[in-house]
User: Fold this.
Amino acid sequence: MKHTITAIVGNKVGVLARIVGLFSSRGFNIDSLNVGETDNPNLSRLTIVVNGDDAVLEQVRKQLGKVIDVLKVSDLTNQPYVERDLMLVKVNAPPGKRNEILEVVDIFRGKIVDVGQKEMIVELSGTEDKVAAMLKLLQPYGIKETARTGQIAMLRGTK
Amino acid sequence: MIEGRRTRKGCGYIYIFNFGTFAEVSKDFLNKMAKTGAQILIDTLINQGVEYVFGIPGGAVLPLFDTLYSSPIKFILTRHEQGAGHAADGFARATGKVGVCMVTSGPGATNLTTAIATAFMDSVPIVAITGQVKTNLIGNDAFQEADVMGITRSITKHSYLVNRLDDLPRIIHEAFYIASTGRCGPVVIDLPVDITMKCSDSAPPGAIDLPGYKPRYYGNPRQIKLAAEAINKSKRPVLYTGGGIILSGCSQELLELAEKANVPVTTTLMGLGGFPETNSLSLGMLGMHGTGYANHSVQESDLLIAVGARFDDRVTGKTDEFAPNAEIIHIDIDPASISKNVQVDIPVVGDAKNILIELVKHVRFEERKEWFDQINEWKEKYPLSYDNKGDDVKPQYVVEQIYEATNGNAIITTEVGQNQMWAAHYYTFTRPRTFISSGGLGTMGYGFPAAIGAQLGCPDKTVIDIAGDGSFQMNIQELATAVHYKLPVKVAILNNGYLGMVRQWQELFYNKRYSHTRLHDNPDFVKIAEAYGARGFLIDKKKDVRPVIEEALSIKGPVVMDFKVTAEENVFPMVPTGQAINRMIGGMA
Assistant:
């Protein structure tokens, strides 16, 4: 089953390697991984999306909590949470097709962030499903490149 | 405050002090004087109370060794870095203090990895300082470079690469703190050579800063109450205790709990010595080579109280059929141990000592006559036994004689395999920190260097390595260390000319196809001992066993006793892998 795990970690050398090692040593492939500084520059927030056996992932979650520089770990999977994935996609956009593409982007409430002679760059944020759906609609025009942040997630309310 | 004024005179500095006692002045002087990274490291180690450091010098640690040369720290030069690591580990297990080893970069560090992994699996507090190439060369395939952080990541509790001299004192203090608190374990400090040569004018701060590290020391009172209620109403309880008893230093509390609540106690290999085997409540060891009565008791129990044990596969056998009717209480300092292998009903996370102190208050004595009658029946039906009728030197007999000759007061280290199991079975352990063995990783070659470390930590104790002919040869070079430092460690080789435990499995499960387990070209161990400057004895007659042990014990230096034991003797009872632990073979059940 798919799990979304977030952790608050010290912004230090080697923390990420230790965390990733806990997954890879058990043969888990990480679907997405995002790390960024929090409001406190000494701390980073990490969001990991991974598929795997529930019991083994529970063990990984406990092991994550044991990593010295990890302050907090939560498995959001069965809790209400907000998730976002930010994507930049460079799509073929000859002048005749630009309006069509604009319509698609509008429906998904995306943004055009760059326009060139033959292509443009679209920015979209949303859940993984939404991002995937727009990507599918842009496919026929010819996608040249994509870049995604991977999922970031946060629990709803206070806990 | 003492005010000092620094003036330049000649090529050095002199300090002029306005006032202050000599002690204050010299302390202030030290603080103000520029120190190299190497000096800061050694001073911090002294500050941590380190008496012994084990290791081998090399290029990347030359500045450290130059500073050690004139420091009060006693450096123990081993002959292989693995030996240094195991010696630091043996020192830590025998004394409860942090063991420290120091080796050079590259091959020095990679040689140490087996020792680090051994300490990690058995939760032993050691701090390993590895030299590293210069900061600007890291990652450049420099001479004697290895990615020590990467290599040791999964076998350390934590590791540091020192990037700035100012971080050094803090890192050392943190390393000792992390290694010796919570669930103990090894910490690596990878120290580039240029950092050790840099100078710092000011004394860098050393305060620990570990916001993410908060071991839980006290158990949840509600869980402790639940555990006590479960114990009080149990008809067939068993205490299953592990190395955590020894690490936490709570064998006294365990004894109180067992006697007050009247509950039998079985220990794991790592827990040997945590509960006196002379006590009538003792069931001895459980698991793959556990006693018949321990394994039957666990399987028939209605409540299993695990304390500082981790439900290792060598203990549980087939987990689905482990203690099938028992409710399970698990007391452990490591939350990740709870329900890892076996589903736990009442977890209590915290330091075993603090939890047992509370638990004892809430339990009451229950007679449990039926349960103890049943256990006594098993004890009579399945005693630990071997055939000692012939003239052969039986390995079990040798271990029994070592026990008797030392009155059970020795520290026993072991190698891994049959020797380890016979030591566990036939030496009666009554005190913590007297059985020192590589349980988790099962490292052959562990026992002898560990004995060296234990002997340095406990100079007044008799230290004996119960060895096999195979494993002793894996760190035999440490004879030079024992001789050099005049350590009276004794090695008792149970020499059967085989990699015995593997041979036993080949006999039982591979149709006696002894694939590469014969060691018929073993060297003459007596001559080897003598070549190193130790004493050696060959024993091939039963009647000589005891007298030679007595003689060896009276010798002040290291002694190797080569006992030519029955070649194809097996360790019984035994539970084949993947079976329930009451499915024993070897004259049992």
